[in-house]
Amino acid sequence: MLSLTVQGSEQISPHFMSITLGGDDIQHLDRSGFDQSGRLFFADPDDDNVFLPSSERWILQLTLQGSAKQRPRVRTYSIRRFRRDALAFDIEIALHESNASHKPAAPGSRWALAAEPGAKVAFLDQGYSYAPTTGATWQLLVGDESALPAILAILERSTETSEALPAEVFLEVPAPEDIRSEITAPPGTAIHWLPRSDPSAKPGALALEAVKQDQLPDGRFYAWTAGESSLATGVRRHLVGTRHIPKSDICFRGYFTHGRASL
Ligand SMILES: Cc1cc2nc3c(=O)[nH]c(=O)nc-3n(C[C@H](O)[C@H](O)[C@H](O)COP(=O)(O)OP(=O)(O)OC[C@H]3O[C@@H](n4cnc5c(N)ncnc54)[C@H](O)[C@@H]3O)c2cc1C
User: Fold this and answer.
1) Atom of ligand 1 at shortest range from CA of 97
2) pTM confidence score
């Protein structure tokens, strides 16, 4: 469990905040996997009375040491970029309205907007899932805004390897202004940006439909898909059922469920 502070924040587009987290504890963070993620523990804005865990047995620690009112919020985010020299890393948080009935709504999204330098957080590494299969000649990456940081990190870090697989990328974003212009990616990569035109549309539906309609390149490929859970499961179902891709060549991860707050 790393004790970190917010070092800076920047709104990079209408629906994305980039937050830099840093501190001496970064020395204990192993760089593992291209889509490495972790649990972020943080306080609601204006709540000074929160107990942040210091142990990997955080559930036990929070139960024993903090009252219910002192419990922090917990949400999972991908490490977008390491800044090892500065003992820091960046995360990128998608801003969204909450359609859930619980209060306060979408604490992760709210925290990102309000995060001030010096704010204390805790971070617990949760590892990675991206692991291209041997024999793949290209990779299919599909996600919505919650998976955009992981997909950009996968593309960027793929270029650091000697056998970078060209990627066919389907990335759904909340609005055209969220499309990124400067992307570092393996040669031969094609990125299909899919901005939503309807703000009330379910995230991921556009990306799933685009994959279903696309011809996709020839040759054996590795597929990695993440985002709203129907997107991840829908892409896998389509690849297995319609395109007869072996299940072992597909990694799929539901990052959130539409209409349900994360735990
Ligand atoms: C391994 C992993 C890595 C992840 N990496 C990132 C990341 O790098 N950046 C990132 O932004 N998210 C990432 N997520 C997703 C993030 O943890 C969830 O989106 C989380 O629910 C956000 O918390 P919240 O407090 O903002 O909203 P919640 O309180 O959890 O949800 C409130 C409501 O908002 C909806 N909702 C939640 N997230 C979104 C969204 N992105 N778009 C639209 N509606 C949403 C929910 O369905 C719910 O109805 C990751 C998740 C996992 C499991």
Assistant:
1) 34
2) 0.96
